[in-house]
Every structure is written in C-alpha cells, then in structure tokens.
Amino acid sequence: MTTAKRTNPDRPDRLVLIGDTAIRLLVERGMRGLTHRAVDEGAGLPPGSTSYYARTRAALLEVALARMTVLEAGEFAPALADGESPAALPDDLMGIADLVAAIVDAAIRDGRDQKIARYELALEATRRPELRTVYDEAGAVFRGAAVGMLAVLGSRAPERHGRFLVAWCEGVMFDAIAGAGWATPPSRAEIRLGVIELLSGMLADATPRPPARPFGNASTSDMGDSPDRS
Amino acid sequence: MTTAKRTNPDRPDRLVLIGDTAIRLLVERGMRGLTHRAVDEGAGLPPGSTSYYARTRAALLEVALARMTVLEAGEFAPALADGESPAALPDDLMGIADLVAAIVDAAIRDGRDQKIARYELALEATRRPELRTVYDEAGAVFRGAAVGMLAVLGSRAPERHGRFLVAWCEGVMFDAIAGAGWATPPSRAEIRLGVIELLSGMLADATPRPPARPFGNASTSDMGDSPDRS
DNA sequence: AATCGACCACTACAGCCGTAGAGAAAACTG
DNA sequence: CAGTTTTCTCTACGGCTGTAGTGGTCGATT
C-alpha cells in the first residue's frame, strides 16, 4: 500500500540501503537534510533512484522508519531474548537493574545516532498519523517487557510501574543524548543505582514473595507474552 | 552578536512576534516548515520582514529559541519562585510530589506545543553548538531546583538524584507527548504516585532529619555523590 | 528647514526541492 | 532467440528556499 515496490526477500534490496542512508542523514543533518537527492548521493546510487523507490516524501519517511524498526529489533534481540523465550529475562531486582543499566548505557554510548534518528521520527509522527502506527508498535514491545519484569518482581501495579520504568530510561537517554546533560552523561554505575532506587521505591509494598510463574498477571490485556507461545 | 537588531524594551518588537510565530510553525510543520516566508505569512507581516530581522536561517532559529526560553521562564515562575526566593519551594516529600506532579501534568496537557517545539530545537542543537549554549542554561535552572529539593529532603546524593528526577519527568512528558504512550497519558494522580515512589526509593537511606537551611543553590560544586569533575 | 541616518518593505536571483514521466536496460517467457 | 513485461535511469518542470541588495519612509538633529 505504501510504496514498497518489492518485498522479495532473496534480494537485500536497495530499500535497506536507502533506509540506512536516510537514517544517517536524519542524524547528521536533521529533517531538512533528508531529501531524495541527498539519499542518492549519500548512498552512491544513480540520481533519481530514491525518487523511484520512494516516490513521495512520506514514502521515504516510511522507508526510514521501517528500517529503523528492524534495526532496533535486532538490537534488543540479544539482550531481551535470544530465541523468543522471555524466560531468559532476569527475575530478581539486581539482575533486572543490571540489564536495564546495560541497555541504557549502551544506548547512550554506542546507540546515540540510533536514538537521535528515533527522536526525529517521533517528532515527525506527531504530525503524521501513518508514522505513528509503526512507531507505537515498536514501543509496545519494549514496554511489554518492562511490565513483565515488574510483574515478576511482585509489583502491585505492573502496568504503571513498567510504563514509568520505560519513561525513566527514556528520560535518562534523552537527557544524555539531546538534553542539557549531554556534556556529562551518567556512568553505567550511576544508572544502575538509579534503576535500583526507582525499582525499590516501586516495590516498597510489593507482595513479599514474587509469584513462581514466569509472567502473566498484568492488569490489562496484552502486556507481553504468554508463557507458552508457538 | 547574533542578529537581534534592537533590544529596546519599550517596543515589544516584531522580534517576539517572529519568535512566537516561528515556534508555532515548528510545532505545526516541523523544522521543514520553518522558513522565512512562512513566518512572514503566519505572522501577518509584509513579505521580507523575517528575512530582515533574521538574515540567516541560523539567526531565525536563535530568535525562536530565545523567545522560547523567555516563555518557559515565565511558565515556571509562578510555580518555582515568585520573586527569586527558592524558599517558597515545599520541603516535604508530599509537597514536592504535588508540585512536580502539577508541573508535569500541566506540561502534558496544556504545554504540549511548548514541549514539542523544545524537542525540535533540542534535536537541532545536536548539530548546532550555538543553540546548545542557550538550551543548556535553561535546563540548568530546572535541574538546580530539583537538586535543591532533593538536598532538603536529606538525599545523600542530591546531584544524581536531582538529575534523575528531572530525567524521570522528562521521560514521562516525552512518552506522553511524542512517544508511544501519547494515546493514554498518565493521570495526574498516577504521576504523583510515580514521583512519590521515585523519591522514596532515592531517600531510603536518607539522613533521618533534613537540614534546616533552605537550599544552597547547588550549581555544580558541592554535594556530588561521586568524585566528579567540578 | 534641510539633512541625515536608522528602520523597514520589496524585489531579485541562484539553487534546491518534490514529483512525474519517457525511455533504456534487464529479466523473464515462450 | 524474439517478444514482452518488469525494473531502473535520467531528465524536466514548477515551486519554494535562503539570502543579498536597492530604494523608500520617517523621525531626529542641527
């Protein structure tokens, strides 16, 4: 429907090259620097190619966003679940703090460009509903994992706590990457401390012993994955 | 030095009109929609006016950012300090939670446009050092207040805690405004709960009785928890 | 009162933008 | 190997963008 002409999997199509270049341009020059011709040039493609694969500008943005979703999914795959078993997630506070700190620290240090491009597209999605959809789906996965972890820890409000945990991470990352704290980003140890404090505040009145079953009792429906999924 | 021709206070100059219009365009159409001619049109000025007051595009961005700094300062003035007495800030956990929740809630609900423009400029500042400066100063004020409040509450690491409190707020706001949680922003009560949990987690090992002296305007020097640079 | 200088409106121009379409090249079919 | 369809390259065009410059208006100065 959008513009992706060929989804043939046996050719790693120019679309991913165009998407990667678009993301790079977004980071280096912002929304104003992302143009069809700039992508052609930046990707070493013959002039007009981008204009052919993404006829309109909206289509070009969708290509970039789609590519970014793929990249981000691949980024969290090793951390969240190697196969698709969420049981690989840690189930104690310290383990979760380690994991979260590792993810945030990595995002600040190595994933800076990724994040800037994401913010740029998030802002654009403010004005383009068609981007919003894709964007939200990606976020739901992340949040689902957080809700699941909070549930395992015995939180009495895993939905809200998971959401605020994600928000905390997002805020720390934004501050360190694009905010006023860019000059002195927090160390990984500081992040870890922060996560521990946040979680222990949330769990002050948690059920004393976390339930034995992996995940599964969040207030609303989706929240992550059921224990067994085919 | 930048481009502000006239800082004469007795004429509320076209510069503020231009700045306001630039901010509005930033929100409605993004960076790509902010052009000299669009500002002329949007502000009802004769064509060429914006191009005269802000000869280059960089100058136009600075006008917008300067105006936004003023607007934001005016926004927090009633909440933070009417004169400049920080003693008006609450000094107990619940009072602070109320204040923070009120600020964040207001930002999400009434200050959405303000925030979007701010994010847009923050991203641009990633690539323009001259914007960075102004931007950071505004953030420092906010963070300073947070550090002060945490110090009053007896935090053992007010620098870090204040910073993470601000980051938490920033994350909640971003999520609700431009992030995946835009559809269901948290209620003010939920935000309040979140702040209380965050603060109580930070203050688990706080000094039992908070010090009596009001603040101390912790800029960067004194109370860092880690051996950091000054 | 004439001059002068600041302030401002308007126009010009070179360059880049999104997008469309015509035609070349390649791939596929028989 | 001829024909046909798909995939791509290249060029064109109207419109918008940043920015500089030119001349006009108006108040202040002497």
The helix fraction of chain A, in percent, is: 55-70%
The CATH top-level class label of the largest domain in chain A: Mainly Alpha
What oligomerization state is this entry in?
homodimer
- The count of strands of chain A amounts to 0
Percentage of β-strand residues of chain A: under 5%
CATH architecture of the largest domain in chain A: Orthogonal Bundle
Low-pLDDT runs of chain A: 1-11, 209-230
Query: What name is given to the CATH topology of the largest domain in chain A?
Result: Tetracycline Repressor, domain 2
Radius of gyration of chain A: 20 Å
Largest protein interface?
Answer: A-B, 56 and 57 residues
The arrangement of helices and strands of chain A along the chain is: HHHHHHHHH
> What is the mean pLDDT of chain A?
84
The largest pleated sheet of chain A is described as: none
Through-space gap between termini of chain A: 29 Å
Structural class of chain A: mainly alpha
Overall geometry of chain A comes to: elongated
Number of helices of chain A: 9
**How many structural units, i.e. domains of chain A?**
2
